[in-house]
């Protein structure tokens, strides 16, 4: 048996794999267009459902919410096959992350596009000590485990209501997802499943706000 043939077969397979990989990676981004962006600085709530504005730390934001759906409707999208959705949100006060007790948690936040849920996670604003820590799932999906405030872009703001006078109880995140989409219009919805049975005033106990939303239409070919 001529064993020298084997390397040739292996080399041929490697070459084939390389060629296939090369062609699989030749998709190119043909167009990318911001079709909607709103940081609420001009008080514009066009297209919003359940939109309401308030000022937090000198920044006009939509909020604040506790287990009520909000949505933004965007029409007249240019031809595209992907949407990139970026949501900047503020997590206020006493979110309990993955806490499984059914009294304080879990505290889930989620969003979807049209009728499909895209991302569901949890957030925790709880101090994380050696002996006691309520973990969160973000930046991964619920029920993954990460330390409180992992992936945050700002953590040094006070709470809003229950902990309104206490520093480091509002946490800002920028969540960005790319989804397959080609319809000329879309509805992006956001909501929570917060558990706050230990509080007489759940909205004050834990809530969230939307600070900015940006939607880009992409064409990948
Ligand atoms: Ca809480
Ligand atoms: Ca809770």
Overview features:
five-stranded antiparallel β-sheet; Jelly Rolls; 2 helices; binds calcium ion; 221 residues
Structural description of this entry:
The chain contains 2 helices and 12 strands. With about 220 residues, the chain is mostly beta strands. It has one domain (about 30-220): Jelly Rolls (Sandwich), CATH 2.60.120. Strands 1, 3, 4, 6, 9, 10 and 12 form a 7-stranded antiparallel β-sheet that branches. Strands 2-5-11-7-8 form a 5-stranded antiparallel β-sheet, with no helix packed on it. Strand 3 (about 55) and strand 4 form a beta hairpin. The model is unreliable at about 1-20 (pLDDT under 50). The protein binds calcium ion (CA) (2 copies). One calcium ion binds near residues 205 and 206.
List low-pLDDT spans: 1-20
Radius of gyration (Å): 22 Å
Q: What is the count of structural domains? A: 1
CATH fold node name: Jelly Rolls
Which small-molecule species are bound to the chains here?
Answer: calcium ion
Overall geometric form: globular
Task: Count all strands and give the number.
Answer: 12
The CATH architecture can be named as Sandwich
Sheet having the most strands = 7 strands, antiparallel
In sequence order, what are the helices and strands, one letter per element? HEEEEEEEEEEEHE
Fourth CATH level, the homologous superfamily: Galactose-binding domain-like
CATH class: Mainly Beta
């Amino acid at each position: 048996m001529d064993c020298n043939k084997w390397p040739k077969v292996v080399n041929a397979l490697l070459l084939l794999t390389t060629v296939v990989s090369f062609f699989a990676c030749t998709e190119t981004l043909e167009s990318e267009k911001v079709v909607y962006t709103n940081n609420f600085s001009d008080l514009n709530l066009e297209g919003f459902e359940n939109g309401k504005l308030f000022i937090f730390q000198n920044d006009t934001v939509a909020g604040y919410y506790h287990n009520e759906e909000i949505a933004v409707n965007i029409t007249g999208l240019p031809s595209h096959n992907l949407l990139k959705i970026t949501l900047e949100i503020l997590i206020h006060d006493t979110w309990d992350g993955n806490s499984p007790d059914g009294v304080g948690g879990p505290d889930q936040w989620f969003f979807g596009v049209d009728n499909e849920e895209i991302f569901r996670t949890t957030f925790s604003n709880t101090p994380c000590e050696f002996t006691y820590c309520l973990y969160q799932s973000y930046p991964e999906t619920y029920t993954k485990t990460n330390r409180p405030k992992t992936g945050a872009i700002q953590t040094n703001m006070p709470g809003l209501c229950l902990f309104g006078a206490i520093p480091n109880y509002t946490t800002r995140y920028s969540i960005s997802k790319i989804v397959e989409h080609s319809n000329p219009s879309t509805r992006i919805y956001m909501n929570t499943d917060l558990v706050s049975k230990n509080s007489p005033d759940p909205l004050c106990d834990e809530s969230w706000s939307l600070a900015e939303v940006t939607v880009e239409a992409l064409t990948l070919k």
